[in-house]
Design brief:
5 helices, 6-stranded mixed β-sheet
Length: about 190
């Protein structure tokens, strides 16, 4: 059998099959039906994710707006072949995901906001590909926090901006009224 024949005979996984896989000791995502392994993030990555979750969740809870998820909880970005990405932090308004406990499995709706924290080994080409995938799936806004440059990069379908530590991070209408100095994430 030729290499081409082997590649075309490969069985692609669905999101449900990916969900049912046994636990792995390495983080992984499903990209167009294929498993991609990722490096385990370091302490600084976890610290920045935790800060974003804390700040965003406090605001969302105070205003009773929706759900904040973290810890690579998974979002389906494509179907046939399926892709399931493990975002660092996400926000779903109650209009997208009703109030109450969420299902254990992946949901068939994308969040309004996704936040990714750039790891030391992440290349911008790969990050921008993932940002584009999120936006094409219907995510309204994607924010990438970069600890190396202490910047926040905010992307939407019509705009992108780079914010420095002296700038204020806002997401127009997602969640409504949210505003925080960029420096708070990197302190």
């Amino acid at each position: 059998m030729t290499a081409l024949a082997v590649a075309t005979d490969e069985k692609l996984l669905t999101a449900d099959e990916f969900w049912a896989l046994p636990e792995s000791n390495r983080p992984m995502e499903l990209v167009r039906g294929r498993i991609e392994y990722m490096n385990v993030p370091g302490p600084r990555h976890g610290q920045l994710c935790g800060r974003m979750v804390q700040i965003l969740m406090n605001f969302v809870d105070e205003h009773d707006l929706g759900h904040v998820l973290c810890n690579d909880s998974g979002v389906i970005t494509e179907r046939d072949p399926d892709s399931v990405r493990g975002m660092d932090v996400s926000y779903y308004s109650y209009s997208r995901l009703p109030k109450g406990p969420l299902p254990a499995k992946y949901v068939d709706v994308v969040p309004e906001l996704i936040v990714e924290v750039r790891s030391p080994d992440d290349r911008w080409k790969r990050i921008l590909k993932k940002v584009s995938e999120y936006l094409e799936a219907g995510v309204t806004t994607v924010c990438v926090l970069d600890p190396k440059t202490e910047t926040a990069h905010v992307y939407s379908a019509d705009d992108d901006q780079k914010l420095n530590v002296d700038d204020t991070l806002t997401f127009p209408d997602i969640p409504p009224g949210f505003s925080v100095p960029v420096r708070r994430f990197f302190e």
